[in-house]
Amino acid sequence: MNNALKQAFEAASRLPEPDQEQLAAVILEELAADKRWRAALAESLPALDRLADEALAEYREGGTEPLDPDAL
Known about the structure:
Blueprint: H1 3-13, H2 17-60
């Protein structure tokens, strides 16, 4: 555990019990959400690779045109 995290936990340990429970719940939910995000991203990588390959092939075949952000 690094120093910043130790300091954060030491500060949190001085909070009232209900606040500690709420903080712990938020931290655990954030960690779970991060784990879900990483899993979803890992699962989508093959599809993203396929889409990138398709876009590159379309570009190489001349099937694309420059994007004009002002025309959006």
